[in-house]
Amino acid sequence: MVKMNSLEALVAQIQGLSGNSSDIHQLHGHLKQSDQFLYSESTRLAPVLTQLDPAKHSLGYLYLLEAVTSAPFSKERANELVVVVARFINACTAKQIRLAPDKFISVCRRFKDQVMLLEAPMRAVAPLLTAIQKLQPSTEHLTTLHPDFLLVCLSTKCYKTGLHLLEDNISEVDQPRDFFLYCYYGGMICIGQKHFGKALELLHNVVTAPMSTLSAIAVEAYKKYILVSLIHLGQFTTSFPKYTSSAAQRSLKNYCQPYLELANSYSTGKISELQTFVQMNRDKFVVDTNLGLVKQVVSSVYKRNIQRLTQTYLTLSLQDIANTVQLSSPKEAEMHVLQMIQDGEIYAAINQKDGMVRFLEDPEQYKTCEMIEHVDSSIQRMMALSKKLTAMDEKMSCDPSYVSKAGRERQRFDFDDFDGVPQRFNL
Amino acid sequence: MASSSSSGLTFKLHPLVIVNISDHHTRVKSQSQPPHASPSSANGCDASVSAPAAASPPPRVFGADKKVFPNFYILGWYSTGSDAQESDMLIHKSLMDINESPVYLLLNPSINHAQKDLPVTIYESELHVIDGIPQLIFVRSSYTIETVEAERISVDHVAHLKPSDGGSAATQLAAHLTSIHSAIKMLNSRIRVLHHYLLAMQKGDITSENSLLRQVSSLLRRLPAIESGKFQDDFLMEYNDTLLISYLAMFTNCASTMNDLVDKFNTAYDRQSRRGGRSAFM
């Protein structure tokens, strides 16, 4: 309905109809119809943008901006566009942009691409974080922008900002691929910050996520998962939990052979064997960019062995520790033990005069008020989780694909049991 | 019916008697058509009476009672209803052959939540001159509930009627926790009332009453009976243990729900999820 020379008319409409929500809906309708027109006029749109206020006219601005960025442009223009988009993201109103989420996502994506092209990914970190916060209906929603943001954090090594986003518990996912990427990048960020526990959890999510065919992201995640499991837990179990998809259970191991053998060699506890194995397969690890992790795995063997000693001995001399753990000198043993005490991995006291280490018990007595509050908050969290799970369980019970299959497979003991469950529902 | 008795007798009522009467009433009500009053055979009220009463020869009807309970004698009778009635006076007069001043105990079975006191009234009969005719009428007497502290607990236990065969552990635990919960709730509401009152006094809305303040202060001084470091430690450790147990229980509950959910999901969406799974057989 909007005709040719009516770019000014459109701008006027945007300016006029950006008041309350009913006007905005009307405006949205107009804008949807003018989509094609905007794409055709994309070159002329840049100066028009200055007439609009990104905060008040967010929806209209978004449409124009999306049309502007859809056209290819030169590097100089890229710079000023990056500035314009960053300003828009900071200023826009969340309610308005949520009406056209895909346009917003594509604008942000192109923004990120441009920033990477300009080789200044740092400029995208803050705007993308703001964009995510404005786009998601609640902190439990995963948007398509989450993995992009994490990728930018990884490129700029801004791990802390990424970690901050990872603390939210996700319970709603739009696109499965976003989830895979989010968990994978999130795992890598946690590894970078040495939060191996959280990394393990995130990588576990990728590996066990529902997938009908094996995803490459899952394969890479599984490799890292094996390594992080060895570093953090000191062991690795090859059996999958029952909620893993059958596609993953069947084929995942075929792609990760060297890593599984590494895990086997680790469990023997012999460092020399482990090191030879790593040397032999070094190239494979380098190709997967996992060499750093593998090296951490090797150094964690010492930790495991020292920890095993705490279960056998009450006191031990540093020389004995060095001998048992195959370290070269008591000095090194002392360093290792000191590091572990600082990290809270063991409880011990080193007597430097006679070089004896005394292993102690966990000093936590569980009789402080802080512990009470800690347990109480855990109980509250558990109650909220339980409610969510029960709701999901109920929803699942009503799911037609479940009901049809459940009926089919029930045991039939009696002739009368053969009546019954319809195989398909005409919905 | 005059308002208060002038006989000088003070009555002390035992709570078990009240429980008996209400029990009897409930039994009769459930077994037969409920009459609006159920006068029954006089019972031996073991209320202690402070004024001396002479032992009187029992009539034939109650001879059996006398043999069974030689140390007790008939003091009066009880019935249920809302108010003493004329028909009751006839029964009362007949009892006066045994005991020249019988006591009539009236229990009001209708539950009235607004009423704070027990719905039990004790009447005595007195000879009053009304319109020139001497008449026997009922006059109310005051009474107090007398009981020993230890007895109160047993009566409380009887009143609650816990399932004696053990029930299931869950119902017993639930009953136990419910009683604790109601006790704590009552304590909480009373403390809140006091607190509110004291706050109002502090603000100056109400005139401060020194006697009340003294009582509150003495109560507060009595409170921390045990206040040592060791007690704190043990108490907190036990508190933590209980919390951990509830945490574990919630964990198990959650894990079970999650297990069900995963099973359902696998059935619905995952092909070939079970090898050698169940199949229909004839």
Automatic annotation (TrEMBL), chain A:
InterPro entries linked to this entry: COP9_N, CSN3, PCI_dom, WH_DNA-bd_sf
Chief place of localization: cytoplasm
Localization annotation: Cytoplasm; Nucleus
Domain of life: Eukaryota
Keyword Ligase: no
PCI domain span: 195-364
A single BP term in Gene Ontology: ubiquitin-dependent protein catabolic process
GO terms for cellular component: COP9 signalosome; cytoplasm
Name under which the protein is recorded: COP9 signalosome complex subunit 3
TrEMBL record, chain B:
Record Pfam families: JAB, MitMem_reg
Listed GO biological process terms: protein deneddylation
Span of domain EIF3F/CSN6-like C-terminal: 149-263
Keyword Cell inner membrane attributed: no
Main location: cytoplasm
TM annotation in the entry: none
Region span, Disordered: 25-57
Localisation: Cytoplasm; Nucleus
A molecular function (GO) term: metallopeptidase activity
Lineage top rank: taxon: Eukaryota
Key words, A-Z: Cytoplasm, Nucleus, Signalosome
Domain (JAB1/MPN/MOV34 metalloenzyme): residue spans on this chain: 66-100
GO cellular component, one term: COP9 signalosome
Biased composition regions of type Low complexity, renumbered to the chain: 30-54
Function: Component of the COP9 signalosome complex (CSN), a complex involved in various cellular and developmental processes.
Family listed: Belongs to the peptidase M67A family. CSN6 subfamily.
Protein name (record): COP9 signalosome complex subunit 6
